[in-house]
Amino acid sequence: MEATLFFFFANILLLSTSRASPFQSHLLLHNSDGAATAAANHLHVSQISCPSWRLAVETNNIFGWDLVPEACEDYVANYMLGCQYQEDSFAVTSIALEYAKNLTLGEDGKDIWVFDIDETALSEIDYYSQPDVAFGAKEFNETKKNEYLKEAKAPPLPAVLEFYNNLLPLGYKIVFISGTSESYREYRELNMKRAGYHTWEKLLLKQTSEHGTTSVTFKSKKRTELVEAGYRIIGNMGDQWSDITGSNVGNRTFKLPNPMYYIA
Predict the structure, then answer these.
(1) CATH numbers and ranges of domains, the chain
(2) CB 76 within 8 A of CB 261
(3) What superkingdom does the record give (predicted)?
(4) Judging by DSSP bridges, how do beta strands 48-49 and 44-45 pair with one another?
């Protein structure tokens, strides 16, 4: 048993470190002696260190927050641009794949895997690394974000794209659910295809009548509609707790890391 666990986690580490980082064009904010990183590790926000703040965010012990604490901006930047974010993402998808490939699917084509899009299928690190966004430490600018969406240039999150490509030959149908407005469908579909997501069963966006609803309400509604249409949600993956909580979340849920923003 110990040998099996060692082999499993060694494979995760090998997968995450053997791939070239898609974020290499960004200069990391710490220097070679790690001084800035060490300083960030000792910064405190309301008596909580930045690493502990991130852990509390990821475990949903801190929720409803609006901005990354100013004192933790560099810490979050280093995490998102460094190797750890990718390693954490590959750990999640590696565990998910072990689950997915050991199931027997039905023969009716109704077994689906649900994905969120932003910071799940796609990485918007090019947007969030801009100085006036500051990895979530600056106030959200909806106009600026919508302009970025129209560029349809966000790259895939490598771990999720690889997982997606492993799911398809296993017989899973893919469903993407995003809180993006339906009016942006052209840009969203273009971006997904450019990023390597070439096929899906459904890509569900917010209709005009659904604007103003919370993410957990909207996504619960869409998943319920899928179940009522006869689909079986075998797995569900997202970077927000609102992606994987609510109604009809699926047989298993998988939470990807994202300390840059919170969506209810």
Answers:
(1) 2-255 (3.40.50.1000)
(2) no
(3) Eukaryota
(4) antiparallel
